[in-house]
Design a protein that fits this description.
Strand order of the largest sheet: 2-1-3-4-5
Shape: globular
CATH class of the largest domain: Alpha Beta
Oligomer: single chain
Number of helices: 18
Strand content: 5-15%
Radius of gyration: 25 Å
CATH superfamily of the largest domain: P-loop containing nucleotide triphosphate hydrolases
Number of domains: 4
Amino acid sequence: MASANILICDDEAGICRYLQKTFAARGLRVETFGNGASLLGRLAGGTPDDADLLLQDVRMPDMDGIQVLKRVKELRPALPVVIMTAYGTIDAAVEAIKLGAYDYVTKPFPKEKILGVIDNALEREMLRRENQVLKEELNRPGIPEHIVFTSQKFREVYDLTLRVAASSANIMILGESGTGKELIAGTVHDNSTRKGHRFLSLNCAALTDTLLESQLFGHVRGAFTGAVTAQKGLLEEAGGGTLFLDEIGDISPAVQAKLLRVIQERDFIPVGATRPKQVDIRFVAATNKDLEKEVREGRFREDLYYRLNVITINLPPLRERKEDIEPLALHFLRKYARRMQKEVAGIGEHAMQLLTEYQWPGNVRELENVMERAVILARGNLITADVLPVRSADIMPAATTPPPRLISLETLEREHIERILTSTGFHKSRSAELLGISRKTLDRKIVEYGLSFARPAGWQPDGDDA
């Protein structure tokens, strides 16, 4: 959240100036307040999403800091609060944590310490907002992007999708990362008898087991530390509709067992509850893993696999449907030109040649990222080759092209991850972003494939990317 808005409440002007300068250097917006009354007035008069984090001193000149925190939590229950405390007021900071503060820091604090706390709090807030958007998606009017294709290969996939959508069967969507699995899942929902109800999606690899279970099943008040109110899970929120479980191959055996019960018994028990709730949901699952191999090696339940995999839809990689590259590229060009209000209307001949001949290991997601970057960098009304990260060196001339290498999906995935890691200097967060997977999944893949990086002399780790 590079453009996040941080509120600072401290009666020490020096502290406010120091923090404002520190945060501004990171591209963060800052508002400062010298007392609790002015802070509360600001929060009472604003909107729920106009502040991303509050950094508050535990000592206020006009009112008790704990009372300020209580009032803040009444006005903005979801706003993350980090308490600043001096030596001798630790007890107050601990009390603040009990009242819902995210964390506390002790003065004087080094720049690295406060930035680390702020980064963690903002990342948590970003995830919370993404989950909130997911849960509030009601009566979804249509798929988020038009499905663009001209190839016969994808036409067959699309026709199959429409045929199976009318059934009530659970569906498994297989394909490499970036091929559009969620788009197909949305198409299934929008063409089914459930289209009047919710379509919700959940990336299973992006959450810890505890958070994943809470997101799926919900929890009752007091089920665990921090559960100050009851919360509905996606199983309940998606009642009558469709629940899309992306990266299903990454869920733990414990969650697999609980999910199997939901499919078999059509009920579930929220975390901390004792009574089951009935549920009517169609499951669409997706993975880029070889689930049959996962079943054989005991990492994925065979009974759950067959319950989810009633109908299989296999999405081809973009390199196997090159006829779709040009219409997709033009579609993304128009999308980002409108969004950025730029007069970019087409793609130059050489640039289009590079796009169509490139192998696209990141598939449609990679193509969209490339086109967004190209629109940003375009100097005229045409996308030219010089603004593309794809170069002729990335494309083997046709005269010297060897026979295609027959390799497994696992080998292809390993080589692609290794290539991205190498290109970013083993910067894990950036690599995960380019790959379209979570940092947790990337760390697991690095261990699974035994990937390492030959660090040049003088190399220093970038934050948590060591």
